[in-house]
Amino acid sequence: MKPHETISAAIRGAKARGEPALVAYLTAGFPSRDSFKQHVQTIAAAADVVEIGVPFTDPMADGVTIQRASQAALAQGVSLRWILEQLTAMPRCKAPLVLMSYLNPLLAFGPQALAQSAVQAGVAGFIVPDLPFDESAEMRAALDSQGLALVQMVTPVTRPRRLEEICASSQGFVYAVTMTGTTGKSVAVPAEVTRYLDTVRSRSPVPVCAGFGIRGREQLELLQDHVDGVVIGSALVEVLERGGDPVRWLLDLRGTEAR
Amino acid sequence: MSASNDPIADLISGRFPDARGRFGPFGGRYVPETLIPALERLEQGVREHLHTSAFQQELALELSSWAGRPTALTFAGRLSALWGADIWLKREDLAHTGAHKINNAMGQALLARRLGAKRIVAETGAGQHGVASAAACARLGLPCTVYMGAVDMERQAPNVYRMRLMGATVVPVTSGDRTLRSAIDEAMRDWVSDPLETYYLLGSALGPHPYPYLVRELQSVIGREARAQILERRGTLPDAVIACVGGGSNSIGAFHPFVADRAVELIGIEAGGRGMGLGDNSATLSCGRPGVLHGTYSMLLQDENGQIQETHSVSAGLDYPGVGPEHALLAATGRSRYETASDAEALAAVRALCECEGILPALESAHALAGARRWAASHAGRTVLVCLSGRGDKDMPTLQQTLLAPPHGT
Predict the structure, then answer these.
(1) B176 vs A57: CB contact, 8 Å cut-off?
(2) Largest CB tally within 10 Å, which of A68, A132, B39, B406?
(3) What ipTM describes this predicted complex?
(4) Of A60, A106, A109, the CB nearest to B185
(5) pTM
(6) Per CATH, which fold does B70-98+220-401 belong to?
(7) Which residues in chain B are contacts of A79 at CB distance < 8 A?
(8) Domain A3-250 class?
(9) Of the candidates A108, A115, A112, A121, the residue with the CA atom closest to the CA atom of residue A147
């Protein structure tokens, strides 16, 4: 299996067990550098895919929680290079790892070098919120040369023809943003959101995960028949921020006491 | 149309920006997917309206009857005698609200109204774009929200009051470095929340396509007027055009109509701040490397990890770690060159213009004057056109602590 296929397989595997896959996000090096490897491993045991946020000074798609976490991580000297070194030195996780990064840190690293280092670190793909499909050819080619996914995002305002194009090119999964806005708010799940997700799923050859504003069990239940998985971001970062137990929280979210 | 081997010819002919919003390698559209439909709609609106005679007539009437255009071209006689070259000032400080920003703000507000926008958001650094946006929105009856860094709200306090008097909501930005760059981050977060009904009135010639093109087109009135005025007064073009560069809107507006006049030197002056160390200046083209910030691929002040650097300038309007993509191309081709002026040189230029000509320039514009002083020293008797982009009333809090502060020990 190529790295990007491990992501799709993990999501499909969870869905086959009758529950939406959990894609769990943490900002690398938050709340502390020392806890990073341990948090990745414990979260990887409870989630189906782990999304690791590379902190950036200007996270324009993110709300206050991830802004705060990013600043705290940067203040401790966390960089993309450091993250890849830590992951390389770590035992491989069962859950595939995806890096979420704004474009500029990736450009500074260099797309070719990035793809090679990422594979060595056991990373299976990337999510780049400020790299829309139209600008992504160079990055896609570099990642593709190592079998790495470039996960594309679609939103409720993406037009139909564009949606088809994006779904056809996305690897690993399609990241269906539930609402216009930044991360960390709480999304309502009216019928129009589930209809939109059904449309995305009908167009996508890879699994579809909903993200932005998913904070609890109630939203998960409303979404579960319309997605293959959900991305849990700010809510989980807040658990880490207050020193809570991320595994217990993720298990509660699934509605299972233990696995 | 395909690009030729001469990027400057492509700029002059209009082949740049190309269909992907590129000025050669620079520019593009690096934004979250949520904003793509809004930018496509804006691009279509620009194509359908901007160059129609109906829109141009509407804009021209506002600029002449409300904003006070054309602005004067002033020969600075005493300053010329002092500095040794003929110095002509394009007086954007005389435009309504006190700076060139009104040219863009009214142009985009008219466009926003045609596109059916329900509300306007804008960012501001020095407050000049915020005031211009607030004024244009008041005039057109559009609700206006302005994001402004908390640091800038303090040093440009008079402009905060002006915006509020004109009915705008001013939102202090306390995230990030609390200056212009954080204000743009926050304005984009607002826009991403309501991309269908909110119009983002970006204040400089940067950001995702089509903003760099749109803002340059609206600001080119500066260079067009100045070129005609100086030809009428002197009979020949100036040897050089000098303007300050933060994001680069007054400078691209001043330069663009002169780009085809290849004998005319184009010189941009960036904020040299306290010195050339990382974080001590805002001299993007002088010290930066290419990268992506706020939707465009251009030059950036960044560290080796691609993190954006904090900047410093005495002037809030130049205190920005990026620059518009058209400037990046002009710099890469050598058609323009870019130098720096320090905080101290800018402050000295404020004093010189006040004392010689009775004009209080904005701290931003004072950087252009400081560049002109240096140019004059090596071009005795030649002629330079300086874009005096704004007036300095807003800078009183800073001037009270610098030029007007009593000497130490008294």
Answers:
(1) yes
(2) A132
(3) 0.96
(4) A60
(5) 0.97
(6) Rossmann fold (3.40.50)
(7) 305, 307
(8) alpha beta
(9) A115
